[in-house]
Structure formats: C-alpha cells, structure tokens
Amino acid sequence: MAEKTDNIICSICLNDFKQPKILDCKHSFCLICLEDYINKITTDNHFPCPLCRRDIIIPDGGVNEFEINYQLEAEDVSECDACKSGISSEFRCEDCQQYLCSTCKRCHANLTGTRNHVVVLYNKYSQKGNQDNPDQYNSSGDNPLPTETDFCSIHHDKIADYYCKPCTVGVCSRCFVENHNGHSFVDLLDETIRNEIKAELTTLKDSLETQITDFLNYSDSLKRTITDLNQSSKVSCRNVDRQVKKICSRIKKLGEDMKDKIHKSRQEELKKYTEKLEEMKILIEKLRVSVKCTENILADQSTVLWLNKIPLMKQEKQETSLQPLNLPIVTYTWFEEESICEDILLKQLGVLKNLDGPTFRSSFTVDEQEMLDTGINGYDYYIQGIPCCIRVERKKDDPSGDVYLGIYLCMDISEDSPIKSWKVKWSGKLVSRNGTHHIMDEGQNDEGSLYTSTDCNWGWEDFINWTIFADERKGFVDKDGIFSVQVTVKMIASVRSEN
After folding, report:
1. Fewest C-beta atoms under 10 Å: which of 146, 224, 316, 351?
2. Which portions of this protein are annotated as coiled-coil regions (predicted)?
C-alpha cells in the first residue's frame, strides 16, 4: 500500500507533484522524476518501484502511458504549460498532455495540428478523478459531460449542435446557419445518430485490433524466420570450418607422406655410400697392419725375412689394386612446389547452395537390431521454434521379405509450442562419399505433409533397399558403419497457437 507521504509529496524529488503518474503498486511519482529514475535502472523493460521495490513493467508507449493520478493532480491546480506565465490552467489537452489557460486554449484550438485534439475542462475533469474510464459524467451520473470538442468552436460556452463534415468542426445552431449553411452535417443531439457513430467506430476499432493480431502473428513469423536464417548461416559456417579442418588434416597427412618418401629415398642413397665407406675402413685397417708388420721386418735387418715378405706384399698389393674406387651413382631428392589452384581447392571445399528452406544433417551408426526395434533419432534442430529431428528405421516388407531403410522427419509440436499445426514439403538425402546421393523429394506433392501434435512423423518407410544401402561400393556407409542423412524443409502454411 502507498504510504501517507505518497499522497503529499513525490518520494523522489520530495516536492509537490508535477504531472503525477500512478504505478501498478498504487505509488505515484512526478512524470519527470519517474522518467529520470527509469532511464537509470531499467532492465529488459522492467524496473522496481522506488518505494516498495515491486517489479513494474514499462508500457509499450513509455512512461507517458502510466495512468495520471488525477486525485493528486487536483490538489494543486497546475499552471499553464504553454505560456509559462504563472496563470492557473482551466483546460487540459489529452493528446498533448498539457494544461492550458483560456487564452492559450483558443490558440490551441485554431492551430491546424492541434485543432482536433481532445481538450477538456480541467476543473470538471480533475474533480471526477476517474482513472479507469475516460468518459466524464455529470453529478447525477446519467449523461456524459461534454468535452471541450463538444462545444462550439467559436462560442466556447455553447454546446455544439451540429458537426460540419467538410470543416470537421462542431458548431452551435447560430454558427451553422451563419457560416456552414449548405454543408453536409451530423446532428450531434440525435441519440440514434450518436449510437450509430459509436457503433461504426467500435467496429473499426475491432477491425484494427484484428489487424493488429494478424500483424503480430506475421511479425512473429518474421522473427522466427530471422532466427532460422541466423541458425542456418551459423550451421553452414560450422560446416565450412569442419570441411576446412578435414582438408587441412588431409593435406597435412599427404605432406607427411611426402616427407616419408623423401626420408626413405635418402636412406636408400645413403646406404650405398655407408656400405662402401665401411668396406674402405676395413681395407685401410688391413693395409695399415701389413705396413706396420713390414716396418718391423725391415728393422730386424734379416734378409731372409725380407725375401719371405716380398711375395706376400705383392699379393696384397695386387688384391687391393683390383678394388674399384668409382663413386656409387646416387639420386638427390627435390620437391617441386606447384601453384595452388583455387578452383580445385574450392571444388574440394564444397558447393554453396541457396535452398528453399532450412537444411540440416544427422549422422547415425548402423545398428540393425535397434533400428528394427525402435528406430534411431538424430539430434534436435529448431525450425520456427519447433524441435525437429531425422529418424531412421530398418523396415521389412512382409509380402516380399525385402528390407528397406526408412527415413522420417519428426516434429515435436506440443501444447506450449508457438505453432499448432504446420504444413511443409521436405526432401531427404542419403549422403554418399562418392557423390552418388540417394534423394527422395515431396516436390511433386502440392499438398505437402501436415504436422500436428498427434501426426508428427512423416517420411518414406522404403527410402532405399537395405542391400543397396549397405553395399560398400555405393559409399553410403563408411568403414566404421556411420552414415549421414540430410533434409531440407520448405514451409507452406502454419496455424499459430493462441498463447
């Protein structure tokens, strides 16, 4: 509840109220004080009341949309907001939300931009202080008090009897005869006509409210499609990064293989020389031993030893002379760099396509028993806020005995979903490593598939024969038993949930 001080002064500026606005918690504050306070602490269009800390939602039209506390406003007659002369106001413009003295009110009524504004007598309006209903009533509570626009535009103290259509003003009988004679008009005192006008305006209001609902639903679809586009772009970029990583990994592997060939060639050529070098070491060591032995014999001064050594030395010389000293023929490695062809790289990277709807892919591991018993679901991918997934099953045709791979698009439409039902066309593709993809498309079906909370699975139970699917030459399943399915979803129509 609001405290007593709340009815005396503004709790923010501690001064008399100026244009007091009342919050949902029934505390009131000056318009300017409230605007300054909200600008400083608002979060996600919410702010806490400065007094009780209750969470308050800011209206769509901003602070000005908070209701005026006419009871507080009546305690202090506001000065004229237009001339700022200190003169007390007698009128209030509901469109400008300004107080006017009688002089400024006349100027206000004659200006083209403000001529049709709703101006009320301030003393009568504030005395009533009705914050819930903008209609003003007299003391008996029977008939509405006329607002300023129901008075004659020339004689401000006379009730307007007629509304001049060409001039779009209300006038008294005298002004109508003198200045608007011959103009088409509406009798403002005819209650039947008043009711007809009010009914027409109410019908137009209801029609606009219907349009607002339609536009809100359309805006919601636009927002969800924007979300889908952002998500599709994000997934596509992630796919590019993954492919680039795979290409880089493959290129790095090829580079390592190339270096292995270089090292192998080096080892083979080095072997030719290292073997020869080892032979030379043994031969040289043998000759050194022979030379050392001969030196010892020469030092002994024995001619007999000399004569015995000479044949041995001749034989050894003859044997070593026959040793070839030609260098082995070798080859040297050289890596010739090629110019990088962007066309080839781009072809390896992939193809960028513009499709009719969101596209996503799921990978599965072949588990024949699980696929036969319950089927396997891929990961959830959100489209228009609805979780979707690819489902694969192993299906057996009873009459023929043939086994097929079944592929389905599943959507989880629940009571809390933004969409009650959804009609789509979609295509499924079994991805092959050698490019021979297997595709099923609903493109020829103008009706499409209708998804609801009860009918949430549509697809092909005989998408591809299991024998063809499992054939390694087709490239659908890799050596680890993994295969991938890709779907593209095109939205045709949807029915929005009322919540």
Report:
1. 351
2. 263-290
